[in-house]
Amino acid sequence: MYYCYLNTSIGDLLLAGDEKVLRLIGFPEGSMRREPDPDWIYSEKPFAKATQQLTEYFAGKRQSFDLDLAPDGTAFQLQVLDELQKIPYGSTLSYAEVAERIGNPKAVRAVGAANGRNPIPIVIPCHRVIGSNGKMTGFGGGIPTKKALLRLELENSQFQA
């Protein structure tokens, strides 16, 4: 597995994957803070497209990603991650709404757990899922990071089509 770091407004993100796919984005803080495994190889080359698109995102110039992804997870988790990618830039859904959209309205807690295990946050926008009462709930990068990502999108969604 290859890895590199990308400096962003929310700190240095760890990007990891192979020559073809992005498998992981690790936050600098929070429960999804990650360190490279000892056998991983540092190389920026496999992540040229990802770093470009993430840099554009943090500059407010990109609303969606076109990257080859390979998230790990169970069939249910992957179904949730697929649904997360359908949440429009600058919008939010509740965990209950995501559960409803995947056809399993009673799976609110399971949706929350799958959301929390998202290995490729930001690109798979788990930050766009909030509590039913509109409150910010648990986030692998920490609540301040979740708020920063949502604020970035809200500020930039009004300026782009």
Overview of the molecule:
Helix content is 32%, strand content 16%. It is of the alpha/beta class and 161 residues long. The strands form 2 sheets. Strands 3-2-1-4 form a 4-stranded mixed β-sheet, covered by helices on one side. The chain is globular. The mean pLDDT is 92.
Order of strands, widest sheet: 3-2-1-4
Low-confidence spans: none
Q: Counting H and I runs of at least 4 residues, what is the number of helices?
A: 5
User: In sequence order, what are the helices and strands, one letter per element?
Assistant: EEEEHHEHHEH
The gyration radius over C-alpha positions equals 15 Å
Give the percentage of residues in beta strands: 15-25%
State the secondary-structure class.
alpha/beta
The major β-sheet equals: 4 strands, mixed
Mean pLDDT over all positions:
92
Helical content stands at 25-40%
Q: How many β-strand stretches?
A: 6
Distance between the termini: 36 Å
Shape: globular
Short description:
The protein has helices spanning 48-58, 75-84, 95-101, 108-116, 143-157, and strands at residues 2-8, 11-17, 22-26, 41-42, 93-94, 129-130. The chain has 161 residues and is α/β, with parallel strands linked by helices.
